[in-house]
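Bit of a strange request maybe. I'm writing a small parser for structure token strings and I need a real example to test against, not something I typed by hand. Could someone generate the tokens for this chain?
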Amino acid sequence: MSTSLLALAGAAPIVTVLLLMAWRRWPAARAMGAGWLVASALGLAAWRMRPLWWLAAALYGALQALDIILIVFGAILLMNHLRRSGAMGRIRQHLGERVQDARIQLLLIGLGLMPLLEGVAGFGTPAALGAPLLTGLGFSPTAAATLGLMFNSPNPPLGAAGVPVNGGIGAVIDAGVLQGAGLSPDLLQPAAFLRQVAAWTGLFTGSTQALMGMLGVYLLVRWFGAPEERSPRAAWRLCRPALPVALALGLLAGSTQGLVGRWLGPELPAALAGLVTLAVGLLLARRGWLMPRTPWRPPSAQGATPSERAGNASMSVALAWVPYALVVTLLLLTRLPALGLREPLQTLVLRWPRVLGQDLSWTMRPLTLPGVFPFIPVAVLTGWLQRMPAGSVRAAWGATLRQTTRIAVTLMLAVSLAQVMIRSAQNPAQLPGMMQALSQSLAGPLQPLLAPWLGALGAFVTGSNTSSNILFSVVQFEAAGRSGLSRTLMVALQNAGGGLGTMLSVVNIAAVCGVLGLQRSEGELLRRLLVPAALLATLVGLMGLLTSRLVTGLF
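Reply from user aminoacidic:
Good idea to test on real output. This should exercise your parser:
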């Protein structure tokens, strides 16, 4: 079979998922199941995988997804506790009391609170909680949905406590894939490779974050100001007074995310960037530094409705923030090598050395997963500290179980699909595997420019940066090797592009519209968001093209 035919056949499972979700509007789990069936049929019939090897690869993929599922469960559990305790409502009240200018409110939530929410939870949490915060401050639902999705797009690649990197990329680029890839010896261990990917990702996401504040303030006025304010010249005049603080907070958020990704890995960049930016932004607002002299409000800003203001008025602002501070502190303490606290957490190991007797080894260290520690303990502690009624606690656990079950099915099918495609390389016909065949079509000098767009395409359809990485990370990895480009750099571009694609995702747009009660507005949001998404993906691609000229293929 020719290389072109192999590439077409190898693309069939992914194309199946994309078409069923984007065209037929199938739910993610159902579409992933169809893609899994196509991959399995191709693996057994066209690639002639041994049945036991195919079954072991599929089961290994499902087991790899358990790490992600536990993190998702803990993150959603914490967010459900915060919502039902009234802590989120109290935080919204606090922001509304401190800042009256809509441009500054957008910056505080978009560059501060939303990265924090993405960092400690992810998986749709910023859209579900951040956009209603904006409407509670008086933004129109359309403005809240559009700007909320846009501002959050640089955060998923290094958010969700590291799931897109450790869970998404790590689920498919494991020790078996890294061996024989021509990498430098210090990158042959998955943990070291993923930290290098996080370092490069931080460069790209930090750069987009640095521009996001200025772009967001301009588009707020340009799209949602009064009719006479929406011309390019009038919008520029009104956004100009807020540009100093927008630039300062954008650079702060971007540099923090980039530096933390470089030195501490993928678990903390978004959360720490959000905390630092929010704290500095509130300080600037209280002191009046860099602030516009005249507050500005969009014409739709009428203030929060009683239901939107709902929160625990008796709760202090400090108590509302305690769970976030605990999560970030505990993650930081257990991730800093010098403190030596990570090693004790690694002592509990679940292992299946040879899955179904095949040369696949599955390992899980539950206590090193953020979902197990610290998310679940902090969620339980939140219920006690914030004096939640027993009924509210039970409701939070019940809602979390239902939400996680739906996500778990999708993730297990997605990782299993990817592993079948990867392991098809081991076949009696000595054919290149499905992922290898796909990589041959992507390889070339323009891969750095195209890599973010492929990542964005995966997230556009699946609604998840993690799922996009599961589908395409190995393709980017193999194509980079064929082109003589840096493998870690290309995988990082895939990861960064996946974040940008989340703002265009049909799944995410529909979810936000459902939360905000927007009826039949998905098309309008998508059309608006195409502009910033294309602009930022092009910027990241150009940065990748330039950076690829400066590094070797060993990294």
